[in-house]
Amino acid sequence: MAAIPAEETWLNWIWTTSRHFVEVTDIPEFAVISNRRAGSNTMAAENAVLAALKPLDPVLIPTERSGHATEISRSLPDGSWIVVLGGDGTINEVANGIMGSDKVLVPFLGGTGSDYLKSTGKLSADSIISAFHSGRFALLDCVKTTFSGSERYFANIMEIGFGAGVMKRVNSLARRKGNPFTSSVMRELPGLKSYNLQIESVQFTGAVRSIEMVIANGRFFGGGMLASPDSVLDDGLLDIHLIKKISRTRLIMSFGKLGTGRYVDMNRVINFRTDRLKVAGDPAPVEADGEFLGYTPISIEIVPRSIRVLTAESVGKPESSRNADA
């Protein structure tokens, strides 16, 4: 498959619903980025989505490699609406590609985890069409991270410690049978370790021996586990849940609470809210939106109402978010 063209050549070649490169006369307003490696996403699902959204004349653009969705979304013109057929990792890539622009992210068909979609709400094709014509969308927070000399954004949740190791395994098992998250947790447990994390923020500063740190913008992770019960996607704050050092046995006994969000009330958990923080100390693994990123130290900062997203709630708004914030 040929590479997606740069912005200046969009007028010449586009991947269309007929799955051939053809010459077109208009830059697309409505694109569908599809990660065919994501969960239930298949060519049959693509065809169904394209048929449902046919009134918008959607242009299908499949990804070919890691980071490709960022390149594609960045190359699309301002004002484009981008439907994502993929999981949290694909949404993360698109979010990184549209930051600072007027493009609208439309999470639609999920992948293995699809946790961001659980916070934004399920959309129907009819609701997408209606919102596109009326210009309705929500302005949601995104999170900027700085580490290893580079900047990157995430939309949902970051983990430091045990969960990052789990997600690294999940990504290698995602195309196998069974529940990749459960099997990855079991494989990581024997090597459970704690990290001496140096936390710096206005609300909390200190050294904590921790097995897991959750930095949450959204509410869910791990395929539907309630990671941060009180998180809101547009409140300008991050919810931090810091699990202190505990034994493997106690961690296993707490799995039920981890799934329902009740773990935040455990006496071995430190909770606080902030708009920015720094994490240093022992080099600890880091993942964001289901993708393994590297190791601490890292700086994290919320960017309030910085990304345009079509949510189930915004579909029903009586007037355009675009006009209300103009």
Written overview of the protein:
By secondary structure, this protein is an alpha+beta fold. The protein has two domains: 7-137 and 310-324, Rossmann fold (3-Layer(aba) Sandwich); 147-304, Tumour Suppressor Smad4. It has helices at residues 43-52, 68-75, 88-98, 115-120, 125-134, 162-173, 180-188, 248-253, 255-260, 312-315, 321-324, and strands at residues 14-15, 21-22, 30-34, 59-62, 81-85, 104-109, 138-147, 150-154, 157-161, 195-200, 205-216, 220-221, 225-226, 238-244, 269-274, 276-281, 285-288, 291-295, 298-309. Strand 7 and strand 8 form a beta hairpin. The protein is globular. 45% of the residues are buried. The model is unreliable at 1-26 and 318-326 (pLDDT under 50).
How would you summarize the topology of this molecule?
Layout: E1 14-15, E2 21-22, E3 30-34, H1 43-52, E4 59-62, H2 68-75, E5 81-85, H3 88-98, E6 104-109, H4 115-120, H5 125-134, E7 138-147, E8 150-154, E9 157-161, H6 162-173, H7 180-188, E10 195-200, E11 205-216, E12 220-221, E13 225-226, E14 238-244, H8 248-253, H9 255-260, E15 269-274, E16 276-281, E17 285-288, E18 291-295, E19 298-309, H10 312-315, H11 321-324
Parallel strand pairs: 3-4, 3-5, 5-6, 6-19
Antiparallel strand pairs: 1-2, 7-8, 7-19, 9-11, 9-17, 10-11, 10-16, 11-14, 12-13, 14-15, 16-19, 17-18
Overall geometry comes to globular
The mean pLDDT is: 85
The ordered H/E elements are EEEHEHEHEHHEEEHHEEEEEHHEEEEEHH
Low-confidence stretches: 1-26, 318-326
DSSP helical segment count: 11
Classification by helices and strands: alpha+beta
How big a fraction of the residues is strand? 25-35%
